[in-house]
């Protein structure tokens, strides 16, 4: 009897202790192996989210039989979304689907991360494997069960409990935002998704084509950098969303494995080139210029090594420096804007939009914020705003430059109108003086003479203004055309040689592009001052022929003397130092010389054509030299 009572107490103690332990084990089992209830009346799309168990496989060698062992330490996902960022580990996920209908339900399980390298799904019912899928970006696209950019895995869910195991491995990020779809609703939603993606791709393509035509019209190098950036990002977007692998290179598995990091590097490379050139950092700030130039070389190197180094390394480097690069571009834009560069306003708004988009995308990739439609498309929204606003930025700068030119033309027109008004006033004064002369010939003779002298002086000033180049204060093209015709007739009558010497500043456009047009104007003035001190004989002509080209006419000078003078001028120009805004500028010039005793059949154009041909030969010979030509 005592033994019976002892056994009864032992049984009660075992029940009292064992029941809570069994309940705790069941709760833990449900926490790391959640159940998703499903029926024909359930929503057509179910977001699995973090309602899964997770098992980390650092070695990447666990088999499905091993992960099903009760000894494995499955954990519940303690974050908002199943996003584990960059990792070298393999991850196993599991959850259960309870089909509460009496019939089998056909469903799609979607994994909307198309760049994962290894994706395996196992469907078990009662411990029996129903289907096994082996997918991933390392397999040709044609091997997929459902031809779609994302991974789509059809399953037949029998009534009752269906167990789903999922293994993911990748050199990039590990994300598992699974969705369970009704097939009919999936195809309808995929059409909407394709339409949205097509809109994004269409906008980017339109921007590339439109700005390419604008470049052909303006020849502004900023458009090339802009087009390179948009085209690179377009290919990055197509690679990231899987559309490139689905429709552009479905068989190029090796290339698809690192295309994302390649286009990340090329996008950043063109971003740096655009920022440097558009904001004119070379003339604005040397430290900023060298910083952005260093980033350009870094991304150029990264672009090359994406073809040889592992994707896991290059994508981490590219992702880690993308946001700092955008932040630097944004900071420099605001700096330029605050320093008075109004053309940088749209630039700043553009980079603000993309920086926010990249920050949201990066945070979702690192698992810091939930993965949803907004975070998934944050970069797309930001990039659309970026490319549109950058296009506005380029157009705004063109308008700004046009406004400056129109203002300059307005000033010139105002001066011309003032001159015409002065001339009209003089004409009216002359007419009035003539009328006064007719009325009071005898009494106003002295006043009339004084008025005529004033008129002559004013006309002389106007004549001087009309034949003088405003920038260099030497003769202009009109003065040259009039003067050389007179000298040609004189040389023809007297039978004396006439020399025409044309010179052109070498690489003048580079001076303007590097130091600005004001620096170019300073060079033109300095050159004119030098030539004016050496061309001073009566009958000699010095004029600015156009742009950076000058022309000299020497009367009664032999070819040897002309070549000697040209060489002296060339050497003087080469040694000349031009100071502009605390900078020391140097220029060189090329000379074309023709000398001949003209005869009546020869014209000014014959001399100019021969001198221009000699100048062309000087440029072809390497510039900064003198070449002569004979008059045919």
- The number of helical elements comes to 19
Model regions low in confidence, pLDDT < 50 over at least 5 residues? 1-28
Q: Please state the structural category.
A: alpha+beta
| Main pleated sheet | 7 strands, mixed
Tell me the total number of β-strands: 20
Shape: elongated
End-to-end distance: 143 Å
Proportion of beta-strand residues: 15-25%
Q: Which percent bin holds the helix content? A: 55-70%
Mean pLDDT: 82
Rounded to an integer in angstroms, the radius of gyration calculated over CA atoms is: 41 Å
Assembly status: single chain
Characterise this structure.
- It is a single chain.
- With 632 residues, the protein is of the alpha+beta class.
- The chain has helices at 2-32, 64-67, 183-218, 221-241, 243-248, 253-256, 259-278, 281-284, 286-305, 311-338, 345-365, 373-376, 378-439, 445-466, 477-494, 508-515, 517-534, 559-575, 604-620, and strands at 35-38, 45-47, 53-57, 75-76, 83-86, 90-99, 105-111, 118-125, 128-135, 151-157, 160-169, 173-175, 179-181, 498-505, 541-546, 549-555, 578-580, 583-585, 589-596, 626-629.
- The strands form 5 sheets. Strands 1, 3, 4, 6, 8, 9 and 11 form a 7-stranded mixed beta sheet that branches.
- Helix 4 (221-241) runs antiparallel to helix 7 (259-278) and helix 13 (378-439) packs antiparallel against helix 14.
- The model is unreliable at 1-28 (pLDDT under 50).
